[in-house]
Design a protein that fits this description.
The chain is α/β, with parallel strands linked by helices and 508 residues long. It folds into three domains: 231 residues, Aldehyde Dehydrogenase, Chain A, domain 1, CATH 3.40.605.10; 185 residues, Aldehyde Dehydrogenase, Chain A, domain 2 (3-Layer(aba) Sandwich); 41 residues. It has 18 helices and 20 strands. The strands form five sheets. Strands 11-13-14-9-8-16-17 form a seven-stranded mixed β-sheet, with helices on both faces. A six-stranded mixed β-sheet has the order 5-4-3-6-7-19, sandwiched between helices. Strand 16, helix 15 and strand 17 form a beta-alpha-beta unit. The longest helix has 27 residues. The radius of gyration is 28 Å and the shape is globular.
Length: 508
């Protein structure tokens, strides 16, 4: 199944047999303690160190900026995540016991327990731009929560994902617990048709919709970690040197193929002159001016179609290059080399403003104030992350007004690598979270067990005169807004009890 796309009809029996074996393995795996599973997963950190060069060799990402970038953006964060899971999974997924205080007294004596139980089979539909980190964190969290996992890697990532699975098996994860599908869309469809219990997809909003459409008939739950077109708010008083340095970093990281890359930069008119001068200095540096990265040919066409639309509507190319001429003969190349592209005077009605583009692109939107920036930001359907640069007090006032899954103050992208933090977006950027405590919890579902203590079961008796008066009195006594209302409720309770006692004696 992991050797490449075959005829889906031929694959179906293989996948079905693998699923049957995985479900059997999952039953045994989920019976282990969380601590035991976490200990196995925790060994991955050291395995990553030992195999770091092999990971780099297996990566087939033309835009990746060498081993330095792989270590900082994938290997180190995944090793940290594995160590965090090994330390905190037991606490996060621990059973909660609810007894005594806190329960409404009218319910009587109850002892309740909330267990976190695995979904069963989790399907991970992987991404191509960060295949080690994103797929890896989702995989280890699903496993430590007690699930079996089927992985549909993205094209070009089959080798590195296969190596990640091999490492986890070497750590002690049962081999039959992980099903590595091929990278075709049909493989994911076949898996969902067989029946999975939860789907995690990292991809475009179009792909997320396709997964949801297939999940609807079976009501399969899903976590959608989708693309972004992320906002940067530059407030008066911001360190513009820092802003410009980080915008350059965001364009270069992974060749611009980062869902959290800064795309839409809101700059007040009164700081534009200094901002433009400092940004021009960064972009005219020979190391940046001569920097180029491969991007997919399809992305290149979308990029320049959007740029042409923006230029026709009044935008300007602040820094960057002209569009390359198309090849006049022969097949179109899969990848096209490009430098950075910075547009200014961008408006919200421009096509590029509302799209997700994995390219070294930044759009500058000059505005009067932060309220205009909030209004402009709301015109983009993506809401994954946002960054605010400026005095801390001003930035914190802005935070509640911004729609985004993650907001970073005076930095961008890098803080999201903290393994403690959940990650997810809103709008076209999806819903649900991965990573952190919340991501780990999302790999489980709650199972509640309540035990009745004692023999008091008033709800088991037939309706009797005075019941309504009694319950209405309880409502007033417990939740009345003042003592007058509560005392009235108490009197009503006493009257109802006396009435019911009188009725019982007359019946006797």
């Amino acid at each position: 199944m992991s050797n490449g796309p075959d005829d889906p009809k031929k694959q179906a029996p293989q996948i079905e047999a693998a699923f049957a074996a995985a479900y059997q393995s999952q039953l045994r795996w989920s019976q282990q303690t969380i601590r035991a599973r976490a200990k196995i997963i925790g060994q991955l950190s050291a395995m990553i160190v030992d195999d770091r060069e092999e990971f780099q060799r297996l990566l087939d990402l033309p835009m990746r900026g060498g081993y330095r970038e792989t270590v900082s953006s994938e290997l180190l964060p995944l090793a940290d995540a594995a160590k965090w899971v090994s330390r905190y999974a037991t606490r996060t997924l621990a059973t909660r016991y609810l007894d005594g205080g806190g329960s409404p007294y009218w319910l009587g004596r109850l002892r309740s327990v909330v267990h976190r139980v695995p979904h069963g089979m989790v399907l991970i539909i992987g991404t191509w731009n960060y295949p080690i980190l994103l797929t890896g964190v989702q995989l280890i969290q699903a496993l430590v929560a007690g699930n079996a996992v089927a992985i549909k890697p993205a094209p070009r990532t089959e080798g590195v994902v296969r190596h990640l699975v091999k490492q986890l098996i070497a750590c002690g994860v049962p081999e039959s617990l992980i099903i590595l599908l091929d990278s075709s869309v049909d493989a994911a469809k076949s898996a969902m048709q067989l029946g999975v219990d939860h789907v995690v997809i990292t991809g475009s909003s179009l792909s997320g919709r396709a997964v949801l459409n297939q999940a609807i008939p079976s009501l399969t739950s899903a976590t959608l970690e989708l693309s972004g077109n992320d906002a940067v708010y530059v407030l008066p008083g911001a360190d513009l040197h820092r802003v410009c340095d980080l915008l350059r970093f965001g364009m270069r990281l992974n060749g611009g193929a980062t869902c959290m890359a800064p795309r839409r930069v809101f700059v007040p008119h009164k700081v534009c002159e200094v901002f433009y001068r400092l940004l021009a200095e960064r972009l005219s540096d020979p190391a940046q001016r001569d920097w180029r990265t491969p991007i997919a040919a399809t992305t290149y066409r979308r990029l320049w179609d959007g740029v042409a639309d923006a230029l026709n509507k009044g935008a300007r190319i602040f820094s960057g290059e002209a569009r390359q001429a198309s090849s006049v003969s022969g097949p179109e190349p899969e990848w096209v080399s490009t430098g950075h592209i910075v547009l200014t005077d961008v408006r919200t009605d421009m096509k590029l403003y509302r799209e997700e583009i994995f390219a070294p692109l930044v759009m500058i939107v000059p505005l009067e104030n932060w309220s205009d920036a909030l209004m402009a930001d709301s015109q983009c359907p993506y809401a994954l992350t946002a960054s605010i640069f400026g005095p801390l007090e001003d930035a914190l006032r802005l935070v509640p007004l911004i729609s985004a899954g993650t907001i970073t103050i005076n930095d961008l992208i890098v803080p999201t690598a903290d393994p403690r933090l959940p990650f997810g977006g809103r709008g076209e950027s999806g819903f649900g979270v991965t990573r952190g405590h919340e991501g780990l919890l999302s790999m489980t579902v709650p199972k509640v067990v309540s035990t009745r203590l004692g023999s008091w079961l008033p709800h088991a008796a037939l309706p009797a005169e005075g019941d309504e008066q009694l319950l209405d009195g309880v409502l007033q006594f417990v939740h009345g807004k003042n003592w007058r209302r509560r005392l009235a409720g108490l009197r009503q309770i006493v009257q109802a009890i006396l009435l019911q006692r009188k009725n019982r004696k007359s019946n006797d």
